[in-house]
Specification:
Distance between the termini: 17 Å
Shape: globular
Structural class: alpha+beta
Helix content: 10-25%
Largest sheet: 4 strands, mixed
Strand order of the largest sheet: 1-6-11-12
Number of domains: 1
Order of helices and strands: EHEHHEEEHEEEHHEEEE
Length: 179
């Protein structure tokens, strides 16, 4: 699973973990926001009794519409272990969670509700409503601890991008970040 972020956020992520938007705001942690303001406004609702902003959105498809939107901006992908989906309170959506049509599920018995044909396809363009479905999300509550991070894919590496003890997680990977 994948978390898309600005490279300037990587140092705090390797220190604290990946935090939900709500947690970042409550803690006053400085961060570079790459999200769309209008999309974030649509995420201002509750899912399973928790504000959607208190979940961390993870993508399952590497090449997705969000990456395409950010194609000219600095960005990094953090690959996260599948085991994070076993955390209590984790949910998933059948499309972009900001969508009015999004349906939310919990429990592995509902995993077949995801549009796997769109998620696993090379591109979303040949599917009806593929853009929205390609952005199906795994929603992890509050925090993804650094121990769940598999690696961090960037277009460049600077000396202070991450904590010194996390440098082995960094990979320069131009292809992984292609839209």
């Amino acid at each position: 699973m994948l978390y898309l972020t600005h490279p300037d956020n990587l140092r705090s992520i390797t220190q604290y973990g990946i935090l939900s938007r709500g947690c970042v705001e409550r803690c006053g942690i400085r961060h570079e926001d790459i999200s769309n303001v209008e999309v974030q406004a649509r995420r201002d609702r509750e899912v399973f009794g928790r504000p959607l902003h208190d979940y961390i959105p993870l993508y399952m498809a590497r090449r997705n519409p969000m990456l395409w939107t950010l194609r000219n901006l600095p960005r990094a992908y953090i690959r996260v272990s599948l085991e994070v989906a076993d955390k209590d309170g984790t949910a998933f959506s059948n499309c972009n969670a900001s969508s009015y049509w999004a349906r939310f599920y919990q429990g592995s018995s509902n995993i077949d509700q995801l549009p796997w044909d769109v998620i696993l396809a090379p591109t979303w363009t040949q599917f009806p409503d593929g853009k929205r479905k390609r952005c199906a999300e795994v929603l992890v509550p509050e925090i993804i601890e650094p121990s769940f991070i598999l690696d961090i894919r960037c277009k460049y590496i600077e000396d202070d991008l991450v904590l010194p003890e996390c440098k082995s997680l960094l990979l320069i990977d131009h292809d992984f970040l292609k839209a």
